[in-house]
Amino acid sequence: MANQELIDALRDAEAVKFGEFELSHGGTSEYYVDKYVFETDPGCLRQIADAFADRVGDAKLAGVALGAVPLVAATAVETDSPYVIVRKQKKEYGTGNQIEGDFDAGEEVVVLEDIATTGQSAIDAVEALREAGATVDRVIVVVDREEGARENLAEHDIELESLVTASDLLADR
Fold first, then answer.
1. Is this structure's pTM higher than 0.90?
2. Which NCBIfam families would you find in this protein's record?
3. Which residues are annotated as a binding site for 5-phospho-alpha-D-ribose 1-diphosphate?
4. Does 3.40.50.2020 match the CATH number of domain 49-170?
């Protein structure tokens, strides 16, 4: 069932835009969900953190840098849980870490993400966490664009959950 309150908040914040947009995977779309709008709007961020908190259980939280960092931080505050940040690649300076924050080998981790289109950034984050010893089988996103992410993640034994889908956001528009 769609989270109508969150859908309304995303629409009211004007996070859903219409026009011609190039997406990060190279495709184009007639609509765009602007994560920076909903991640910087306190009302949207609060609703997202509350919704994530209802779903994460006791798992350690992980967010994909950069887009999911505000989401995982807000959810960590809501759940009083520590979290880790997964970079797209290892740093070439300082500690050289790809994963910032601590977790124990075998610990259950759930990845929080902003928007899923193909799911590749979530897959990359899960693979990095698994290589580091975490147990990861779930990714929760704010918006599933319904363009193959669920199927792509399933090929890697990862379940995709979404707070809302593109169909939810675009209904009645």
1. yes
2. pyrE
3. 87-88, 91, 113-121
4. yes
